[in-house]
Amino acid sequence: MRVIVVGVGEVGRHICQQLSAEGHEVILIDRNADRLKRVERDLNMLCIEGNGASAGILEQANISKADLFIAVTDIDEVNLIACIMAKEYGVLRRVARVRNEEYFSGASPLNEHQLGIDLLINPDQVMAEEILRISKMSEAFEVVDFAHGEVILVGYQVKEGNPICNITLADLKDLRGLYDFVIVAIVREGQTILPRGSDIIQAEDRIYLVVRHKDMAAVEDLFNLWSTAPKRAFIIGGGQVGFRVARAMEKQKVDVALVEADPSRCEYLAEHLNNAVVLNFDGLDARDLLSEGVDTTDLVVAVTNEDTTNILSSLLAKYHGAKKCITRISRPDFIPLLGKLGIDVALSPRLVAANMILRFVRRGAIISVATLLGSEAEVVELVVPDRWLHIDKPLGSIGFPEDTNLGAVVRQGKVIIPSGDTVLDAGDRLIIFSMKKAIPLVEQFLAS
Amino acid sequence: MRLGTIGALLGWLLIFLSVALLLPIAFSIYYDDGNWRFFVISSAIGFLLGGTLAWSCVSEPEMGHREGFAIVAFGWLAAAALGALPYYLSGAIPSYLNACFESMSGFTTTGATILESVEALGPSLLFWRALTHWLGGMGIIVLSLAIMPILGIGGMQLFQAEMAGPTKDRLVPRIQDTARILWSVYFILTAVETGLLMMAGMGFFDAICHAFSTLSTGGFSTRTESIAAFHNPWIDIIIIVFIIIAGINFSLHYRLLSGNLRAFARSEELRFYLGIGIFATILVMFANILFGTYESWSDSLRYGAFQVWSILTGTGFSTADFDQWAPVCKITLVTLMFMGGMAGSTTGGIKQVRILMFWKFTRMQIKKLIHPKAVEAIKLDNRKVPAEVIQSILGYLSLYMLVFVVATLIVTGQGTDIITGSTAVIATLNNIGPGLGGVGPCQNFAGLSDLSKAVLIVCMVAGRLELYTIAVLFLPKYWKDVHYPKWRWSRS
C-alpha cells in the first residue's frame, strides 16, 4: 500500500514508523527540514519538504498513485485542505487531524462527509475517551473493548500477596471454575511474554486478560481485585482534555474537582460545567491540593500541558493516598519509566491518536486494533474468512502462528473463550493478542 | 437633561390618555349612569394640557437615559393625576388625594382601594378603574411606544425605564415592534379571558372588567366582595389560570404562540415561579385544614390556591378573608407578597428571577467557605449571568429594603399599628392590593392619614417602575445641568 503522511509531529512519526515496519510504502511531507532529516535517518521512507496542502508538492509525492492519505500537521486548516485536495486526486481513503471543535460539529454544513474525509480525528477527544474508559476500572491500567463491548481486554498490575501469585497458569485454569478468561500476555520488566500453561505469575507482573464483559466482576473477585467506578475524581489541568473528562464524569454523577491555574480559563470552565468544582490554583501547589482532599480521592487525572506538573502532582497524590492516577505525558519515551515511579497509567495523547488512526487504516481483514502502551504487543480483531483452510478443525491441531495468543472468539454475538478443542467457523471474530512483528503472519495465516 | 424633550413627550402622553378617557363614555351611555360628562371634561382638560405642552416645547432630536427616567417617572405621576379627575369631578371620591390614590392604585395595578362600597361608583367609573389597570399592566409608555410614532426617538431608554427587569429579551430588532408584540399578546389573552368568563356566567361588563384586572394582575373588581361575590367555582378556576398566565414573562407567551415550545420548557425562572406557587398552595391548604379554617379538602384547596396565586402575582383579588386565617398562612402570604411573578410579566414585587439569582449567589458564597479557591459562575438557563447583573440585583434588594423601612417608619409614625402599617407598605410597594389588619381584604385604605396615603402613592409607582427609575429622581446630581426648554414661540 502506498501511503502519504503530511506532518511529522509525534502522531505522524508514530504512524510512519508502524506502517513502514509493516512493509508499506510511506511518503512523508513536512515543512520542517530538520525534523524530516531526523526521521529520514531513523526510518526507511521517502521524505519531501514542503507544504502538504500545495498541489505541486502533492504531485511531487505522486499522489494519484496513493491509496491512503493522512494529514496530521498541527494546523487544522492545512489538514482539511490537504484532504480535500487528496480527494480530487482520487486517493481512496483520507484521514485528517482536527483539533478545533467548531469544525467538528455534525450540524455544520461542512461536515466530514461533505468534505470527503473518511476519518476526522481530534486528539483531545480521543484522549478524553481513553481516560474515561480506563477510569471506570479503578485497578486496571488498560481497558480495551472488542466486539462492541462484549469482550474486554484488561491489564492489571499484580501486587505482592495476591492469591494468584506464584502459581502456574495451568493450576489457575482449575481455579477459574465457571468463569472463562484467558491470560493473553504477561509483561515482566519490560518484556512481553505470551504465556503457556507452565508459566508462573509473579508479583509486580502486568497481566493482560481477555474476558467477557459480564464475567468481569466474578473474575476480579477471583483475582482479588476491585473495579469500581470512581466516586470522587480530581482532575488537574483544565485544558480541552481535562474539560471533556470533567464534563463526562459529572454526567456520570462523579464528584469532580477540576484544578486550573489560569483564572480566565477557570471562568470558562465554571460557566460550562454544572456540578464540578472548578478550583483556581497551580497543579503543583501541594498545600492547596491536600486541603481540597486530593489524598482521599479515588482517581487523579493529571492532564496539564506540562509533563513535569503531571508527573509530580500524580506522585504527590499517590504518596498521600489517592487510589489511582492517570497521567498525561507528551513524550512517549518516558512511559516505561513511569510505572517504576508508581504512576498507574501514563497516556500520551499523540500515541493514543496515532493508534486510533492505525486502527482505522488497518481496516481490512482486521476490524480493530489496540496498541498497548509500554509493550511491543498489539491486540487485533479479525474475521475468519469463508473457505478458510482450517475451518472445522479443533484449535489444538491447526498450529496458530508463533508469538500470538487467541483471546476470544465471538460467534453470532456470543462470546466463546477458546480452548484446544474449540472449532473455528467462517464469520467468527477472533480477538488475537500478538507481538507486533507477528501481525503480518497472522494476516497471512488467516488468508490461507 | 433636556426639559424640552421631556415636556413634549409628556404632552403627547397626556393626549394619548385623554383619548383613553373617552372610552368609558360608551358604558356610561349604555347603562345611563350620567357620568359621561365628567369623562368629557377630564378628557378636555387632559387634551388641553397635553396639547399645550406638546405644542410649545420643542423636542430635541436626541434622548439619553436621564430624559428617559424623567419622562417615565413624571409620565406615571401625570397619568395618575389625570386619571383621578373623573372620580373627583363626579363626586364619587370627594377628596382629590383619595382620587389620586385610587387612580395610581389603578395604573400601577396595585388594586388597593379607599372605597367602602365599590358598586356605588356606577358602571362607567368601574370600567375606568379596570381600564387604568389594563393600560398600566403592560405599561402606558410601552403602549405609547407601540402605537405612537412620535415616541420613536429614544424608545429604548423609555422601554428600559418602564420594563426594568434584570434580564432583557428583545424579540425583534426594533423596540417599537417588540412593544407591539407584547401588547398584542396581552390583547389576545384579555379577549380569551373575557370570552371564557362570559361562558362561565358573567355578563359582558363584569367579564371585561375582570379580564382587565386579571391580566394586568391589578385586583380591582366590580364588587366590594371581589370574586367571592360570584360564588362560582368555574370563575375561580378561570381567574386562577389567567393569574398564573399573567405572572409569566410575556415574551415566553409570544414564543409559545409562535410555536416555540422549547423556550417554555427551558426557562428556569418559570419552573421556580411555578414551584414556589405550588409549594405555597400545598402549605396553605394543609395549614387551613390543620387549624380548622376549612372543613373539607376541596374548599381548602380552592380558597388556598386562589389566595396564594392572587397574592404571589400581586393581583389582590380575594375569595376569602385571609386576615382570619391562621398566623402561619398569613405570614406565608406576606412572604409571597415580596416575590411577585416572572420578570417581563405584569406582576409587581421583587420578581422571581431576582430571588432565584439571589439564592444562587448566597449558595455560591456558602460554597466558597468550603472551597476558598473555587471559581464559580452563576448561571441562568445554562448561560452565565454577568457580574454586573448580580451586582444590580444586590443593589436592588438593598434599595428595596431601605424604601420599605423608610415608608413603614413614616406610616407607623402616623399612629397606625404595626401589622396595618407594614402590610400597607408591602401591599403597595409590591402592587398587591390588600394587606392585613386595617388594610385587610375586607377593609380599605381610607382610614390612613393623608401623609400615609401620599407615601403609599409614591411606593406604588416606585414598586411598579422597579425603584431605580424613581430613586434616581432623588439624586441631586441628576438635576445638574438642566437645559430649559426652547419654546416654540420664542425666536432665537
Topology:
The complex is a heterodimer of chains A (448) and B (492).
Chain A: E1 2-6, H1 10-21, E2 25-30, H2 33-42, E3 46-49, H3 55-60, E4 68-71, H4 76-88, E5 93-97, H5 112-115, E6 119-121, H6 123-135, E7 142-146, E8 151-157, H7 169-175, E9 181-188, E10 191-193, E11 206-212, H8 216-222, E12 232-236, H9 240-251, E13 255-260, H10 263-272, E14 277-280, H11 286-291, E15 299-302, H12 307-320, E16 325-328, H13 335-341, E17 345-347, H14 349-361, E18 366-371, E19 377-383, E20 404-411, E21 414-416, E22 429-435, H15 439-447
Parallel strand pairs in A: 1-2, 1-4, 2-3, 4-5, 5-6, 12-13, 12-15, 13-14, 15-16, 16-17
Antiparallel strand pairs in A: 7-8, 8-11, 9-10, 9-11, 18-19, 19-22, 20-21, 20-22
Chain B: H1 3-22, H2 24-31, H3 36-56, H4 65-83, H5 85-89, H6 96-107, H7 123-138, H8 140-147, H9 155-162, H10 175-199, H11 204-215, H12 233-246, H13 250-257, H14 261-266, H15 268-290, H16 297-312, H17 327-339, H18 352-370, E1 374-375, E2 379-380, E3 383-384, H19 387-413, H20 418-429, H21 450-464, H22 468-471
Antiparallel strand pairs in B: 2-3
SSE string of chain B, helices as H and strands as E: HHHHHHHHHHHHHHHHHHEEEHHHH
The percent range for strand residues of chain B is under 5%
Could you tell me how far the N terminus lies from the C terminus of chain B, measured between alpha carbons in angstroms?
A: 20 Å
Content-based structural category of chain A = alpha/beta
Task: Please report the first level of CATH classification, the CATH class of the largest domain in chain A.
Answer: Alpha Beta
Total count of helical runs of at least 4 residues of chain A: 15
Overall radius of gyration of chain A: 23 Å
How big is the Rg of chain B?
A: 22 Å
Strand ordering within the main sheet of chain A: 3-2-1-4-5-6
Residue runs with pLDDT of under 50 for 5 or more positions of chain B: none
CATH superfamily of the largest domain in chain A: NAD(P)-binding Rossmann-like Domain
Q: What does the oligomeric state look like here? A: heterodimer
Residues in helices of chain A, as a percent range = 25-40%
Separation, N- and C-terminal Cα atoms of chain A: 20 Å
Low-confidence stretches of chain A: none
Beta strands of chain A, count: 22
Largest sheet of chain A: 6 strands, parallel
* Total count of strands of chain B: 3
